[in-house]
Amino acid sequence: MPGSAAPSSDALLGFGKEFVGPSSGLINKIACFGLNPLIPWLAKRSDEEEAVKSLRHSLEAMDMDPLMKAAMIATARQNLNYFLNQSSIIEKAIPLLHETERSQDVDEEWLSRFLDGAKHVSSDEVRTIWANILASECNEPGTIPKSILAALASIEIETARAFEILAKFVIQLSPYGLPNLVIDWNQNFVLRKFGVSFADILELSRIGLVSWSNENGFNFDVEQVTFKLPLESDFCHTFVYDVKKPHHKFYTQQGRISRGNVVFTPAGLSLYQTLTVEPLDATDFMAYLNTFAESYDLLIK
Q1: What's the rounded Cα separation, in Å, for the pair 95 and 117?
Q2: Which long-range contacts (CB under 8 A, 24 or more apart) does 245-254 make?
Q3: Among 25, 166, 178, 241, which residue has the least CB neighbours within 10 Å?
């Protein structure tokens, strides 16, 4: 309204409390986008129905065509949903910010795309993923590619859960410390046990988080691969080619170590690195890896 004071960044975000420290940088950065300038006075209300009811009462006092009133209420309800989704994600991201976060350096196009996608996220589980992504980018600007935002914009909650389950089947490689999926689709009963289907793999591939090969699989062009499990401190395991095997499998080549049937794409790897995934039990995981090794003419030393 003309002459009225602009809402503070905290009021605009609707958190209803003061934030200091790392959070202030993120709030100030997002406040520059205004989030939703149509409803800044509703931002202090966390209850959607109360906010819409308040707007309806205000409109009823106006001399306006009933159809126009209904349209304004419907628009406000939709905008408020968008706003609450964004606010929830931002609030989840704030505790994840480091003291050295650099929110002000986040690319504005990246943040614009993030907010545009975040407004549609109503699932609390998927909001947590978006919050991790936002915090990671604020802590180290430039680390989260825009392709992740495009992938997550259409992700269903079941697909997000499938990705988190796949992320349990990860080993850390030496000497670079890169996480690598170890998925043997020939042992897909293992994945089905955890609730991942082939349809989930296809969908994760469609949105660009994994690649898969149903035939030849993927290989390391090395003669051995040293690795550790997620909670281990030392790289104490090694995949080596089993020279005693008959090597009858057409996808096995001497001097190349199999990586299985599913790998992270660059976007999927970046997403994995933002998540906190509870790993598989070490004994169960090693039993799975031994089965994997036998299937691909490998030994674990």
Answers
A1: 21
A2: 245/297, 247/297, 249/296, 249/297, 250/216, 251/215, 251/216, 251/217, 251/296, 252/296, 252/297, 253/219
A3: 178
Q: Is the dihedral of CA 3, 77, 115, 45 positive or negative?
A: positive
Residues forming beta bridges with residue 241, ordered by sequence position: 298
Q: What is the pTM of this model?
A: 0.74
Query: In this predicted model, what pLDDT tens digit does every residue of 22-36 receive, in sequence order?
Result: 667 777 777 666 554
Reply yes or no on whether the pLDDT at 138 is more than 60. Answer: yes
Q: Of the candidates 110, 210, 212, which has an alpha carbon nearest to the alpha carbon of residue 164?
A: 210
CA torsion, ordered 5, 8, 13, 19, to nearest 10 deg: -160
Query: Angle between the 124-139 and 66-93 helix axes, to the nearest 10 degrees?
Result: 60
Distance CA 262, CA 266 (A): 13
Residues 6+ apart with CB under 8 A from 294: none
Q: 155, 159, 162, 117: which is closest to 137 by C-alpha? A: 117
DSSP 165: H
Cα separation, 198 vs 223, in Å, equals: 30
Task: Outline where the chain has alpha helix (H).
Answer: 9-13, 22-31, 48-60, 66-93, 108-118, 124-139, 146-152, 157-166, 188-194, 198-206, 266-272, 282-295
How far is it, in rounded angstroms, from Cα 244 to Cα 247?
A: 8
| Chain centroid offset of residue 21 CA | 25
Q: What is the pLDDT of residues 62-85, one digit of tens each?
A: 777 878 877 877 777 777 788 888
> Could you check whether the bond before residue 175 is cis, i.e. omega within 30 degrees of 0?
yes
